[in-house]
Amino acid sequence: MVRIIMSGANGRMGKVITELAQNDPETEIVAGIDVISTGSEPYPVFTSAEDCDIEADVLIDFSSPKALDGLLALTEKKGMPAVLCTTGYSAEQLDRIREASEKIAVLKSGNMSLGINTVESLLKAATKVFVPAGFDVEIVERHHNQKLDAPSGTAIMLADAVNEAAGGDMEYIYDRSGRREKRGKKELGISAVRGGSITGTHEVIFAGPDEVIEIRHVAYSRSIFGNGALQAAKFLAGRSHGMYDMGDVIAAKQA
After folding, report:
1. Contact criterion met (CB below 8 Å) for 106 and 244
2. What does the alpha-carbon distance between residue 171 and residue 183 come to, in Å, rounded to a whole number?
3. I want to staple 208 with a disulfide (CB 3.0 to 4.6 A). Which of 114, 135, 166, 244 is the partner?
């Protein structure tokens, strides 16, 4: 049984993961952390990480970048692995996460879906074929109108996968409204759409001479992210310090 502390317990994803964990015989959420506690949760919820005194095997965070310092302080103090599902971290916070990984196991991903992480691997293979052949690459992501960050962490994750496979010298272009020029060969366009209740759609377009290849992932519910987070928690529990990602989780399942 993997014991979990759920950060962001009363958020949308926290509630989804709580329900999934209740139906998973291999996991148990033993405590939560959230700025709001209703008192009706099936486990104790603390309003700050420093107040959490419950022992657990791993922490899952689906909250806000503002909570990072307190969560890392808690996990480092307890020597507890952390699954970081939050997006929108600053450069300084990313450095802090890498620093923490020297003491504890940290798994960070811009998207916890097993499907989107498999797409990431497909993109690396496709990029090595299409980019040298002169294909342009564009990423379009769509999310609900309550999402704060744009582009999404997943879009950046997919862009990074393409860029890495292409040699690391692509230029991310987020807005062409101020440009009056032809598209550069090294450009990687990233567009964000916000509207309604769209859970999440990501399209990667390889556009070449006389042909277009599109790789598309559609999320129909938040359960796919919650399931991925639980799979990551099971994988990370008991691991030694270091940085991990969902690719490691998928590789472990294939082994």
Report:
1. yes
2. 11
3. 135
Which residues neighbour 64 within 8 Å (Cβ) at sequence distance 6 or greater?
8, 86
Q: Which DSSP state fits 63?
A: S
Q: Is 217 a catalytic residue?
A: no
Per residue in 158-193, pLDDT (tens digit) is: 999 999 999 999 999 998 888 899 999 999 999 999
- What lies within 8 Å, CB to CB, of 137 at 6+ separation is 127, 130, 131, 162, 166, 170, 188, 189, 204, 205, 206, 207
Q: Write phi, then psi, for 134 (nearest 5 degrees).
A: 90, 15
Dihedral sign, Cα of residue 252, residue 108, residue 94, residue 167: positive
Rg (CA), the chain: 19
**Beta strands at 58-61 and 136-143: parallel, antiparallel or unpaired:** unpaired
Catalytic residue, chosen from 15, 78, 128, 147, is 147
The pLDDT tens digits of the residues spanning 80-116 come to 999 999 988 999 999 999 999 999 999 998 789 989 9
Cα separation values, 218 from 22, 83, 118, 179, Å: 26, 23, 13, 31
Of the candidates 108, 143, 202, 217, the residue annotated as catalytic is 143
Please tell me the distance from the alpha carbon of residue 195 to that of residue 181, in angstroms, as a whole number.
29
Q: Is 143 a catalytic residue?
A: yes
Tokens 């691997």 sit on residue: 121
H or E element: which one contains 208? strand 201-208
Which residues lie below 8 Å from residue 244, measured CB to CB, with a gap of 6+? Answer: 105, 106, 107, 235, 236
| pLDDT score of 6 more than 90 | yes
